[in-house]
Amino acid sequence: MFQYARPIWPKGLEKEMNCTGGFRARFQGTTHGAERRIVRVTASSRYRVYVNGHFCGHGPAAGPHGYYRVDEWELSPNVIQEGLNIVAVEVAGYNVNSFYTLDQPSFVQAEVEINGVVTAATGDPARGFDVFVLPERVQKVQRYSFQRAFMEAYQLAAPVHEWRTNMDSFPASPAAWDAVEEKKLLPRRVSYPDFAVKAPAAIAASGTVAQRSNAGTPWRDRALTGIGPLFKGFELGELALLPTDELGEFETSLRSETAAEAYEGKPLAFGTHDTSIFAFDRNLSGFIGIQFSCSRVSRIAITFDEILTNGDVDHLRLECSNIIYLTCEPGAYAFESIEPYTLKYMKIVVLEGDCLLSGCSLREYANPDTDRAEFNSSDEALSKIFEAARESFRQNAVDLFMDCPSRERAGWLCDSFFTARVEADLTGHSIIEHNFLENFALPELFAPLPEGMLPMCYPADHCNGEFIPNWSLWFIIQLEEFRFRGGDETLIRSLQPRVDALLRYFEGFHNEFGLLENLESWVFIEWSKANSFVSGINFPSNMLYAGALEAAGRLYTNSDYLAQGAALKQVIREFSFDGEFFIDQAIENADDEIEMTDNRTEVCQYYAAFFGIADPEEQREWYASLVHDFSPSRGADEPTIADISEIHPANAFIGYYLRMELLSQLGASTQLLEEIKAFFGRMAEQTGTLWEHNRTTASCNHGFASHVVRSLYRDALGIESLDLKQNKLSIAFTDTSLQWCSGKLPTPEGLVELEWRIEDGELRYRITAPPQLTIEVRNFSGKPLVREE
Asked: I want to staple 651 with a disulfide (CB 3.0 to 4.6 A). Which of 9, 528, 733, 780 is the partner?
C-alpha cells in the first residue's frame, strides 16, 4: 500500500504517553495533465492532515491489534498550482489502554503521491518529512474518560499553526526520529467521513462565573483514581493541571433577562469570568473549533454536553471530562480539537484574561452514506423519529459500530447486531460490518481473555481480563444475518475457527442437562433487575446460547450444533416456564439438585420470544399478556393472566428492542408504532438523536437506538425483509393507523421505492425495485390491495 514510506516516530518516544508529533513535507504543484494528488497515511493513535493549512482528513479507520488501516486523502481542492505546497500531519500517540484507541506504540507512515510518483515519504532519506514533537498540547493531563484516552489541554502561543503553511516556520526544533517496526496494513474500505462544518444556531445564555463560597468535594472518577498497572495514565500527583477541579470551584450565574438569540457569527467580547452557552440545532459529533484573539495572557475553558442541566452545561454529567482547556499568549488563534466529541451545547468560560470570539463551530465526523434513504408518513412524529435515528447512526458508524460517539466510541458486541441491520437499511451495503467482523478475525488471540472467548467490545484493550461471556454469543447471531445481507463468504468461512473455539469454551460450563451454569466474569442481560439473577443457571443466557448454537449450525452446516440448540431449547422450556411466565434463574441446592427461584423479569420473556423458546400457538395467553400488560410504560389496564407487579420491568436495551421485534412478529403494528412514538418522540424533539435509556442520565446519542429504522421500514412502510443471498424482497402490509407512507430503501443494485395510501377503503401501493430482486407481496391490512403502476 506504500511505495516508499516507512513507519517512524520521534526518537525514543514511541511508548511515551500522550505525545503529539508533527510531520511536514512539501511538493510542487503542476498544471499539465489530469492529476491525482493524494496523501496516503496511517498512524497510531489518531492523526489529522492539513494541506496548505486547510483541514484534509482524520483517521485512521479502526483496525485490530497489530493491524493498521490505510487512508488516501485527495489533496487537489487545496493545492496551489505551479507553487510550493505543504502537507502537515499531526499525530496524537496515547500509549494507554482504552475502549477506543489501542495501547500500541506511536508511529506515522505517510507519503505524498502525484500522478503515481511519490514526492514525499516518511522514513525515506531522499524525500523524507520534517519531524517535530509539538509542544502546545499539555502532556500530563487527566484521562477524558475511563473508556477513552486523554482530555485535551493546550498552551498556545501565536503563531502556533504557521508551520502548516510556511516551510520557514518551525513549531519546535526538528526532532531526531527512528524507523520503527514494519506494520501489517489493511485497506480502509469504509467511506471517508462527512466533515461538514456546522455553526451554532443560537446563543442560549450568557452570564458570569464566580468562586463558590463553599467548595464541594472534588470530582474523583475512576479515570482519575484508578490509574495503575492495569489502567494507564498519569496519577493525580503527576498532573500539570486538573481542569475538573478548577471548574468545580466556580458556579455560574446566567442572566435571566437575556433570552436566547440567533447566533450570527458576530464577534463577541469576553472578559475574565464571562461565559456564554452556544446551542446547535441538534446533537452533533465532531471536532470543536473556536476562532478568537486575546490581548493578554488568558485561560479559556470550552465545556460541552448533549443537554442542559438546570439551564447550564454539566460537563461531568456523562462521567467524562467534557472540557477543552486553553492557556493562551496574546495573539490570534484558529483552534480545533484533534479528538471528536458529542454535543448540542458548547459553553465558553474565560477563567482569566480576555477573549474576542470571532467564531465557533463543530466539524462533523459522521457517516456520509445515509442520504439516499427516505421515510415519510402521515404521522409527522414517526418521520421525525426516523430522522433522529438516521442522525444517531451517522454519528455512531463512521468506521465502526459504536455504542456512543462521546464517552466511549467503543465497538460493543450485541449493540453491533442491531446497528449492523441499520447500516444495510440506510446505506444499502454492509462495508462497516465487514470491517467490524474482520477486526475479530485477524488477531491470533485476545489476551488476557480465556481461550476461545471474544472481547465484549473491540478493537479495545481489556487488560483486567474482564469480558461478558454471553455477549460474545451475539457475534454468531450477527454473523448469520451478515450472510443474508450479502456478506463476504470468504470472511464468514475464515471466522469458523473463532466460532468453534467460542462454543468449545462454553462446553466447559455445561451441567448434566446441557444448561450453562456459573458463567464467569461479567454476565450481563441488560441494565435492569435481570442483572441480579445471573448466578447459577441464568435462563436468558441459555436462550441466547441455544440461538447461537442453531445459528452456527446453519452457518457451517453442522448438525451437532443444530441438535444441541434444539435440545437446549426444550430443556429451557421444561425448566423455565412456570405456567405463566419464564423464570430467570435456577440454582443448585446443597443436595446438588436444581432449585427454581421465583425471580422473573420482563426482559427474560422477550429473550424467550426472540430466540424461539416460546411457541405462539401453545402459549397464546402468555403472548397476549406480553402485548397487553407490558409496555415501555406499563399501562393501568387489568393484567390478562396474572399480577405482573412481581415481573421486574425491562430497560431500553435490549428489552424494549426485543419487545419491538415481538410486536412486529405478532403483527401488532398499530401498537408498535404508538409505543415507538411514546418512547422515542421526546428524544427526537429534544436532541435530534436517540438515547441510551429513556431518560437523560446517560448518553443521548446511541448507535443501537437507530434500530428503530428497521421497525419503521418494516412495520409502517411494509418492507418486511431483503434477502440479498436469495435476491428476494418481501413486502408485508399490516393494519396500521397511518393514512399513507412512503420510503426509499437503498440496495447494492439501486433503490427500492415503495409508497402506499388508504383510499376508498383500499390500500393502494406503488413499488419499484432493481430487476435482480424477486418481489413477494403479502397483505395483512384487512383492506383490499390494489397495485398502481
From this structure: 528
**Nearest Cα to 656, choosing from 708, 598, 583, 611?**
708
Question: What percent of the chain stands above pLDDT 70?
Answer: 98
Report the alpha-carbon distance of residue 340 to residue 328 in Å, rounded. Answer: 22
What single string gives the DSSP state of each residue in 47-96?
EEEEETTEEEEEEPPP--TTEEEEEEEE-GGGPPTTSEEEEEEEEEE--S
Name, in order, each residue with C-beta under 8 angstroms of 249's C-beta and a sequence gap of 6 or more. 211, 212, 215
83 burial type by CB count under 10 A (0-12 exposed, 13-18 middle, 19+ buried): exposed
User: DSSP state, 193?
Assistant: P
Q: What is the pLDDT of residue 79?
A: 87
Whole-model pTM? 0.97
Rounded CA-CA distance 446/65 in Å is: 9
Residues 6+ apart with CB under 8 A from 617: none
Tell me: the pLDDT tens digits for 483-542? 999 999 999 999 999 999 999 999 999 999 999 999 999 999 999 999 999 999 999 999
**Average pLDDT score over residue span 647-667:** 96
Residue located via cell numbers 473491540:
458
> For position 573, what pLDDT does the model report?
97
Q: What is the mean pLDDT of residues 715-720?
A: 98
Helix (H) or strand (E) holding 686: helix 669-686
Q: What is the pLDDT of residues 162-173, one digit of tens each?
A: 999 999 999 999
How far apart are the two ends of the chain, measured CA to CA in Å? 50
CB atoms within 10 A of CB 55: 17
- Report which of 442, 456, 535 is spatially closest to residue 495, judged by C-alpha positions: 442
Query: For position 635, what pLDDT does the model report?
Result: 46
266 vs 292, 299, 446, 729, CA distance in Å?
Answer: 12, 22, 53, 53
Alpha-carbon distances of 366 from 60, 258, 591, rounded to whole Å: 14, 34, 57
The pLDDT mean for the chain works out to 96
pLDDT value at residue 257? 63
The answer for 53, left when phi > 0, alpha when psi is -120 to 50, beta otherwise, is: left
Give yes or no for a contact between 361 and 198, defined as CB atoms under 8 angstroms apart: yes
How far is the C-alpha of 677 from the C-alpha of 679, rounded, in Å? 6
Between CA 735 and CA 757 the distance in angstroms is 12
